[in-house]
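Provenance

Sequences were taken from public entries as deposited. Structures were produced by running a predictor on each sequence independently, with no templates supplied. The record for Large ribosomal subunit protein uL22 from Methylovirgula ligni is shown for reference.
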Amino acid sequence: MGKQQTPRALKDNEAKAVTRMIRVSPQKLNLVAQLIRGKKVERALAELQFSRKRIAADVKKTLESAIANAENNHSLDVDDLVVAEAFVGKGLVLKRFSPRARGRAGRIEKPFSNLTIVVREVEAPAQAGA
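Predicted structure for Large ribosomal subunit protein uL22:
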């Protein structure tokens, strides 16, 4: 007698991946997440591959994990996947102090972020007969 299994939060044609404790501010991470929202996964991977932002590598890794979850855990077709959601949450903030002039201390905040990417399988449009 175990506890009952919780129902699946996502639809049957969706898969997600979550990365926690990414060492970047949520505002900077959200700029990269905006690049891939609503795009097909191969296009999103290409955008992240050639992005000049440092954090793009971590976002790419999370997206690849979501694609692998869709393929292996939910048997979805990789070619029909789009990035349905890419959202950023705040994590903890490390507070540090740096010495300043006249015996004062300047506060330095080192924020962390959480990233969630949801991929969805969409039906490929039917090819028009020629």
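The beta strands are 14-22, 81-99, 105-121.
The domain at 14-121 is CATH 3.90.470.10 (Ribosomal Protein L22; Chain A).
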